[in-house]
Design brief:
Length: 158
Amino acid sequence: CWEGGQAGLGYRCVIGPCWVMAVFTMMLIVGVAFILLRLAFSKVPPPVFAVLLLLALTTLVFFILTSTTDPGITPHHPTPPPPPAVWTFHSPTSSFQPPGTKFCSECGVFIEEYDHFCPWTGTSIGKGNIRYFYLFICTMCSTLGLVLVALIVEELRS
């Protein structure tokens, strides 16, 4: 994983190994949102369109936050910590593994509260970015659901 500096309020930008897929996903989100919003523009009332636009932009923001926020990367520890800490030795990395972490083979690092590796976001999902991941999924589903409902209602009216 590539780590950038801290900016603003302690935000640490981390780019995962599948950054190309993250760029592709971002273009897909923007493309699909553009097509759906264009379809909905002439068929839904302006307040509904404004909500759709806001949801689409929020989806994009949460996607970017998910794919660039530190998922909970912990440093490698070549020596064991002092007692009473109980860490296990992870031979592939020649490092001691802190409790509550899992090794992500795609990123090659230990992640606190590791959930999974998401190829769509190009990074691991863990303690640091899981809330953004859930918000991304919720806003994406809400956007698509609202577009479908709005288009169906408008189609039934005509």
